[in-house]
Amino acid sequence: MSLPRIAVDAMGGDEGVRVMIEGAALARRRHDRFKFLLVGDEPRIKAALENHPNLRASSEILHTEGVISGEDKPSQALRRAKGTSMGRAIEAVKAGDAGAAVSAGNTGALMAISKLALRTMPGIDRPALAALLPTLEDHDLVMLDLGANAECDARNLVQFAVMGAAYARVATGREQPRVRLLNIGTEETKGTGDLREAAAMLKASAADLSISFDGFTEADKLGRGDMDVVVTDGFSGNVALKAVEGTARFVADLLRRGFTSSLRSKIGFLISKPATELLKHHLDPNNHNGAVFLGLNGIVVKSHGGANAAGVANAVAVTARLLEENVTERISADLARLGGASLGKPRVQEESA
What we know:
Blueprint: E1 6-9, H1 17-30, E2 36-40, H2 42-49, H3 53-57, E3 59-63, H4 74-80, H5 85-95, E4 100-103, H6 107-118, E5 128-133, E6 141-144, H7 154-172, E7 178-182, H8 193-209, E8 212-217, E9 229-231, H9 234-259, H10 263-283, E10 291-294, E11 299-302, H11 309-324, H12 327-338
Parallel strand pairs: 1-2, 1-4, 2-3, 4-11, 6-9, 7-8, 7-9
Antiparallel strand pairs: 5-6, 5-10, 10-11
């Protein structure tokens, strides 16, 4: 069964057309039900498609000359959106010409344009950026928000938990996702008033939302695999994500340096190569590429700007799975079960951490 076609901003990312087209072609080879609307400079896209006849046969090109740069502020991007590849890709989702959009462009601009064009779902105050992080277990961890909202109140955090749980059911297959709030400690008295209020609201609503909620977690537990969703504000989430990515690079570089320091270490590398290759695969961000803006009336996926073709293909696969599993409808159903009552409880008074 074919899926609604996916609009690809072919001009976004560090390398633009070449990597975006190669990534879409790789995704198409893996899943022949994918169809695409390739948005950007038509001559350049056509030239890139010469090496990918399978993708060319399943795609339509929408020509645009404008491109949102990495330096454009969201306000600038909004003013120029209609003539750019990013703006036209999102507009295609709004018009129903595509089921979802993928872009490796400017994150702030992508969020601003998406929010203005698609609007937030009923019951959602703010969309959130969610991504999959690797764990020690055989499933990834859904983490949100990763930068869309620097400051969040308890109501926002509860809504993020609802959206994250819906995504986790798609990503992990677990019908009752294990949800935690990121905090500076696991004790109930830790953290801000908004965090503690959100915890109380989620605890009271866990049964209605079909989630397992057990309070707080700390950042050093993110990779353990004993939870499915971690919820935080965009500031803390982005800091935690960058720390995780930096640590992964540090470990990889340290191993590389150690294995090349002497003849004995080089021999040791050859012996342990299967294990190091597994580690490299597990920590490679391209294998977990594809962050999604949850809470919009449409699916928009952000590919990392530096992703290679395999990373772009992974982002496309994430997009297709969200379409296939109707994640937007799942979120709407969960919000309906939550209702307004549990979001209107008195605020917990602020206490020091």
